Amino acid sequence: MTSPNASRLGVLLLNLGTPSGTDFWSVRRYLKEFLWDARVIEPPPSRALWWLILNGIILTKRPFSSGKAYKGIWNNELNESPLLTVTREQTRKLFEAFSAKHSADVVFDFAMRYGEPNTPDAIRRMSEAGCERILIFPLYPQYAAATTATANDQAFRGLMKLRRQPAIRTVPAYYDHPLYMEALAGSVRRHLEARTAEGAPAPQRILCSYHGLPERYVASGDPYADQCRATTRLLAEALGGPEGWVESAFQSRFGKEEWVKPYTVERVAELARSGATDIAILAPAFSADCVETLEEINEEIREAFLHAGGQRFDYIPCLNAEDAHIAALLAVVEREMAGWLPEAETPRVA
Predict the structure, then answer these.
(1) Range of 117's domain?
(2) From CA 307, how far away is CA 160, in angstroms rounded?
(3) Which residues contact 111 (CB under 8 A, 6 or more apart)?
(4) Which residues, other chains included, contact 275 with Cβ-Cβ below 8 Å and sequence gap of 6+?
(5) Does residue 147 sit in the same domain as residue 197?
(6) Is residue 55 in some structural domain?
(7) Is 141 exposed, middle or buried (0-12, 13-18, 19+ CB in 10 A)?
C-alpha cells in the first residue's frame, strides 16, 4: 500500500508465517523451512543428525497432524490462514491510521519469515518503490531469538541481494508499551463486561498463555520469559482484582527437553483439579490469531481443562486488527521513525 507519490520511507510488518495450503506437501514445505531454522531449533551437537531426524521422521508424520489443525481454522473464503488474513488487515489499517496523521509519504507492506509473502521479496519491492529508509517491525511484543531475531535475520538476508541497500531500523520489543498494555487490558475488560451482561461472574482465573521456549535458550540469555511475565504483571495491575488472579503459562512445547514452565496444558488441568471450574485465557505473545491460538488453545487446551473437571473455558481473542491495537502499533512506528519523519510530525512522547 502506498500513497500517490513516490515513497522514500517504508514500514515492513513481519510475522511468523503460514503454509500455502492444508495439504501434506504445502504443510511439509512450511515446516521444513521453519524447523531447519537454527534460531528456532538451536543447532544440536550434530547438524547432520538433526537433518536426518527432521527429514526422516518429523517431516514424514507431522504434516498430517499440522495439516489437520490448519484445516480446522482455515479461512476458506480467501483460501488462506487466519494469520495471513489478519496481518494483511493490520497493514491496511495501520497505513490508513498513519496517513490520517502524517503527510510523509510512506510505503506500508507485510511479509512472513517462513512461507509467502516472503521477506526478501518485500524488501526488494520496497526498495524498487523508492524507499531509502525502511523500518522493520517484527510483530512480537516480547523479544525472542526464535521470533524477533530470525525475522530480522531474514530481512538482512534480503538486503544482501540488493546492490543499493536502503537504510534499516528494527523495532525493539514493546511488551510494556503503555498503548499496547491499554489495548490488551481493554480486550479483557470487554470480555468481563460481556460476561456481566449475560449474568455470569468473573472467571476464577485469567491465564496469559505465551508460546513456550526451551529453558536452555533462556539460560543462554534470551529475555523472552522475563518479558512475558512482565506483560502479565502489568496486565494484572491494570485489571486489579485479587492477587494471583492473572498468571502466566507457556504452550506449544516441542521435543523432550525442559521448556519454560508452567506448561499451559498442565496448568489448566491442575486448576480444574484444584476446584477452578471457570477460567479465561488469552495469548499476549501473539499479535494475530493463528493455529496456536485458534486450534491449540481453543481446542486442545480447552479439552484438557474440561476433561479435568472444568466447566467454562473462555478464549479471549488476540488483538488482531482492533482499533486500540492499531493505535499501539502506530505509536511504536512513530517512536521508531523519529528523525525520519519531518520534525513537526515526530511525536515527542513514547
Answers:
(1) 9-21+74-173+323-345
(2) 51
(3) 12, 13, 14, 117, 118, 119, 121, 122
(4) none
(5) no
(6) no
(7) buried
Question: What's the whole-model pTM score?
Answer: 0.93
> 16 with 122, same domain?
yes
CA distances 130 to 102, 125, 148, 170, 275, Å, are: 18, 9, 26, 19, 60
Give the cell for residue 326. 492499531
Say if strands 278-282 and 205-211 run parallel, antiparallel, or are unpaired.
parallel
- Are 288 and 184 members of one domain? yes
Return the C-alpha cell found at 349: 512522547
- Which CATH number fits the domain that encloses residue 300? 3.40.50.1400
Centre a 10 Å sphere on the Cβ of residue 39 and count the other Cβ atoms it contains: 19
| ∠ CA 254-249-259, rounded to 5° | 35
- Both 158 and 249 in one domain: the answer is no
Q: Decide if 239 is inside a domain.
A: yes
CA distance 178 to 37: 33
Q: Are residues 266 and 187 in the same domain?
A: yes
- What is the reported pLDDT for 348? 52
How far apart, in Å, do the first and last CA atoms of the chain sit? Answer: 26
The predicted-structure confidence for 159-209, as pLDDT tens digits, reads as follows 999 999 999 999 999 999 999 999 999 999 999 999 999 999 999 999 999
Could you tell me if 246 and 232 are in contact, meaning their C-beta atoms sit under 8 angstroms apart? yes
Cβ proximity of 7 and 106 under 8 Å: yes
Q: What is the mean pLDDT of residues 24-36?
A: 96
Give the span between the Cα atoms of 222 and 146, in whole angstroms: 9
Cβ atoms of residues 6 and 129 within 8 Å: yes
Residue 41 lies in a domain: no
Q: Which of 266, 273, 284, 276 is nearest to 313 (CA)?
A: 276
Answer for the pair 271, 279: CB distance below 8 angstroms, yes or no. yes
In this structure, are residues 32 and 54 in contact, taking their beta carbons and an 8 Å threshold? yes
Residue 154 domain-assigned? yes
Q: What are the DSSP E strand ranges found in the chain?
A: 9-18, 106-115, 133-138, 167-170, 205-211, 246-251, 278-282, 312-315
Share of the chain above pLDDT 70, in %: 95
Question: pLDDT category, 350, cuts 50, 70, 90?
Answer: very low
